[in-house]
Amino acid sequence: MKQIVTRAGWAILLLFSACTKFLKEEPDGFLTTDKYYTTESQVKAAVNGAYAGLDDIFATGIGVATSPAFVPEYLTGYSTRLRPGDGDAENQFLRLDYIDPANGRLEPWWTAIYYPLENCNSVLDNLSRTTFLPEAARKQYMGEVYFLRAWYYFQGVRLFGDIPLKTTPTTDLSNTRIPKAPQEKIYDQIVADLLKAEEAGLPWTAISGHVTMGAVKSLLAKVYITMAGYPLQKGNDHYRKAYEKAREVIESNAFTLFPRYSDLRQVSLQNTGEFIFMLQRDPVNAGNFMHFFLMPFPEQPISIQPTYGGALAPRKEFYDAFAADDQRKQERVFFYTQAAQYNNPSNMINLPGPLIYKYWDEEAERTGKAGQNFCLLRYADVLLLCAEARAYADGGSTTNATAIDAYYQVLRRAFPAASKPAVISADEVLKERFFELCFEWQTWYDMLRTRKTLDVAGGQMVNLIGYKAPNHLKAFAETDLLLPIPLSEVQKNPLLQ
User: Fold this and answer.
1) Full DSSP string of 427-469
2) Which of 84, 267, 369, 481 could join 283 via S-S bond, C-beta 3.0 to 4.6 A?
3) Which of 176, 119, 187 lies closest to 153 in space, CA to CA?
4) Domain coverage including residue 128
5) CB distance 12 to 46 below 8 Å
6) Average pLDDT of the chain?
7) Closest among 84, 26, 196, 97 to 477, alpha carbons compared
8) How many CB atoms lie within 10 A of CB 344?
9) Is residue 474 part of a domain?
10) Structural domain includes residue 179
11) Rounded to an integer, what distance in angstroms lies between the CA atom of residue 121 and that of residue 293?
12) Which pLDDT score is estimated for 99?
């Protein structure tokens, strides 16, 4: 939540910076926060600071259109980096068979977990001892941070597997080297934090972009459906829990699908309607690089700043897997193949192939400053989770009316003439997730929890293990599904071996 942090949170982040690096550096001292939590404005700054980690992976490195953020999309094998450069095989994980622990893309993901987790632990510890706030307000502040701690751990456990579990702030040198915990223990902590957030009295929606009840229950649905699948394989009990949480979000009537896909790009609609939880952006203080990084390569003069593109594009095989009459495949919806020349709209420029249009920002095209929020939880995601979870709980397919209606809402927007089905299968819903949520940082996690993927040639869901995705040089194996803990972290903490 960068927009919030830039206004109030940096003071508290700087205060915490000496103790947030317990897995990054050898600490030589600590700053105390004992005298900090004395006013509500200080509490707000501390809580807002806990949001900062949401955008850590969107930092840019040295180079053009480079960022660790693209790692989960490269891992799917359905996208490619158009801009050539040194280390392409490493940057895009083309080989899969050997992900080097020294790969520079790994460290930012690791620190995007553990830096903000340390902030969350410190805020929760101090808020638990705060007495001057009204109890309702204190619970809400803590509910936000419980959600954020769950978010960061959920991000980490899915990418790295067994990771350290730490729920107290670092206050001395005795607890700076933490061993890895089993994944199930991490998931238990995630659920415990979300259940506390669920009881915090948060509002269902918030135009400010803060954590809401809608975000809490949506994330719980995602956590439960993940626990039901791989690697924990909790099965039907957790599929039913996922279904129930998603159904609560649906029956709240707090969210709705936008009638037009173009609404997903409207700044005026951010934090409303279909958007459940977003990374807050600001064109001046905290821009969104997606518009510029997804430009074509070689450069084409289709925007005021056309030179930064080539970071991520769909493989043609994936684009071709969309049905011809799918509204999402139509020009300038999810993708585009041509664009008007900047300042010369009568001249249409053919692009080198289909490119991602989901993040096109009309204001950025005009001003060179991109401020669209980045969606982290979307209502379409929850609808499809509801349908998939119930289908799995019912044995692989379902006639449940709530699940079918949830699936049909998403399907009908893509295919307006489609009839409502009488029965849906889990594979049908999962396939719809691949299309609806493509390039939204969801697909890789769906592949991991289901061990299934989309066969773009046949148009069907198939086993992930043994499937060679279009952008990979070999088929997936079990050993390809977790990222190695960064070498630099293992060197500093041998317990991470």
Assistant:
1) HHHHHHHHHHTTTSS-HHHHHHHHSEEEETTTTEEEESTT---
2) 369
3) 187
4) 1-201
5) yes
6) 90
7) 97
8) 10
9) no
10) yes
11) 34
12) 77
Query: Where a domain ends, among 352, 370, 388?
Result: 370
Output the pLDDT for position 257.
Answer: 98
Mean pLDDT across the stretch 302-315?
A: 90
**What pTM was computed for the model?**
0.92
Amino acid at 340: A
How many domains in the chain? 2
Residue 446 CA to residue 431 CA, distance in Å, equals 10
The two three-digit tokens of residue 443, written as one number: 């697909």
| Cα-Cα-Cα-Cα dihedral sign, residues 48, 54, 59, 65 | negative
Of 319, 346, 370, which one is at a domain's C-terminal end?
370
Residue 464 lies in a domain: no
Angle at 400 between CA 405 and CA 236, to 5 degrees: 120
Together in a domain, 196 and 294: no
Tell me, yes or no, whether 192 and 306 share the same domain: no
Tell me, yes or no, whether 155 lies in a domain: yes
Residues 166 and 293 in one domain: no
Which CATH number covers residue 143? 1.25.40.390
The residue behind tokens 């809608």 is 214
- For 468-490, the pLDDT digits (tens) are 999 998 999 999 999 999 999 99
Same domain assignment for residues 192 and 311: no
The helix (H) or strand (E) run that includes residue 38 is none
Q: Which residue has the tokens 């379902």?
A: 398
- What's the confidence (pLDDT) of residue 87? 59
**Does 285 have pLDDT greater than 90?**
no
| Ramachandran sector of residue 26 (left: φ over 0; alpha: ψ -120 to 50; beta: rest) | beta
Taking CA atoms, 378 is separated from 2, 14, 130, in Å, by: 19, 32, 34
